[in-house]
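WARN retry 2 of 3 for item q-0093 after timeout on previous attempt; input resubmitted unchanged.
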Amino acid sequence: MTNVDIASERTALQNRWAEVARPETAEEWLARAEEVSDILAVDALERDRANVAPHAEVQLLKDAGLVTVLGPKAHGGAELPWHVVNKIVRIIARGDGSIGQLLGYHYVWAWAVRLVGTEAQIEAVEEQYTSGNLFFGGAVNPRDADLRITEDGDELVFNGSKTFSTGGRVADLTVLEGVLEGTETHVFAIVSTDQPGIVFPGNWDNLGQRLTESGGVEIRDVRVDWAGAAGFVDRVFQPLVYNTLNVPALQAVFNNFYLGIAEGALRTAASYTREHTRAWPYGGKGKKRGTEEFYVLEGYGELASKLWADAALIDAVDLEISEILHDARENLTERRRGEIAVRVAAAKLRIIEDGLEAATKVFELTGARATSNSVGLDIYWRNLRTHSLHDPIAYKKHEIGRFELLNEIPEPSWYA
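OK item q-0093 returned
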């Protein structure tokens, strides 16, 4: 199939839902995600190598209705629970890890107004993005200096830069975060991405997750009405423990696209082995195919069992955090917040270690010819290795250890 054929096929497929009723049940939405994932998988490797901003891929997500599944039904959303939404992220990541990450971050930023906003802000933002089928990005990398915020009458003026800004040029809306000058007050706000004061240098050219638009951003005199400062009433922030769920929620999303990438690696490798891997000629008589080799069967059995176990843990944790995210915000205690953060960290630890093992060991199970660039098995390791460096896994182990040994919960931070 030529690149022209692939492009033509994708165009036909991505329009297939124009005259089709939207899914209604969770199962139907997961099936829709499988369709999208299959479309993305067709040319994921070619698009990764081209490293072009994924406008078409985001439009595909929009056409499929996946962008608004968290949004209110009254405005065209599906009001799916988080444990189902995370499965959608996982499914998309099987076909394309970069697009799985983009969609997962979008969901968290779409929920950000519920994490910190007032009731009026929640209603306004959810109506805006759901009815408009809008896609979120975020300029909230905490390792950089905070954006500087100054007051100008009834407006806040944001300035500064971030070295990472996932979503970048493909986002309709961007979440900003900064500190009000002369104070320690942090302010979140949602703004339109398409404005002169938001400038993307287009400098994301990394080893993996190449289509996540995670490069830098310059924020130049971006103005927000005080009324748009999330969670502020009369210019005073109204704190809740629930505000700090942004990190556990985002890290739970990580777990799912990590798992999706690892599952994609195993699925692609297994397909290659069934079709191409040869038996080792010195391993005994009678073996004609790689699928008859003991070490190949053993290897796939070991990797599959680990990923199944990881999926079971991630599913259980997702059910827990989903219940918390959909509960009344006032109900969350510091203790419960800390417990779920530890559970998310434990799942992250397992899927990173097992996922990287899977993405590496598949080469042993497919054979030397599978290292060909035309096969592209390297994309899974590159994607998982790149994003799993987001924050040191050693600190997750430390948090889990302190909880297990000393019954201490982690203090809320930008990474815990």
